[in-house]
Design brief:
- The protein has helices at about 10-25, 30-45, 50-65, 70-85, 95-100.
- It is mainly α and about 110 residues long.
- Helix 3 packs antiparallel against helix 4 (about 70-85).
- The protein is flat.
- The N and C termini lie far apart (about 40 Å).
Length: about 110
């Protein structure tokens, strides 16, 4: 994997300000959206009678991960682990800082 090139100080500050603005405005990241979609797709496919849907989703996700040079076996294990967690009632982690913002509690104060 290639080493990322170091950022200039002004780029670091711009990124810091961007993240702070996203957090203050409570705008979800791409990862937040992806987690919701994954949760929705897997839990929907876990419903009775949806076995083919889960099989197709599994195949597609694994194929796409392999296209990105992940190992096929590793992709299978990871996908199956996530499915098992969802079967056991696991959910993605909440974003506690959003609740603090909603209730006017500064980020540096612990709940």
């Amino acid at each position: 994997m290639r080493k990322p090139k170091p950022r200039r100080p002004d780029e670091k500050e711009k990124q810091r300000a961007y993240r702070a603005r996203q957090k203050a405005e409570r705008i979800p990241s791409r990862d937040d959206v992806a987690r919701i979609v994954l949760h929705w797709a897997i839990t929907g496919a876990l419903e009775p009678g949806k076995e083919k849907q889960l099989t197709g989703l599994r195949k597609m996700v694994i194929e796409r991960l392999v296209e990105q040079d992940f190992s096929e076996e590793g992709a299978r294990r990871r996908f199956d682990d996530i499915v098992e967690r969802y079967k056991d009632g696991w959910d993605f982690r909440a974003k506690p800082h959003l609740r603090r913002v909603r209730h006017g509690i500064p980020d540096d104060e612990l709940p």
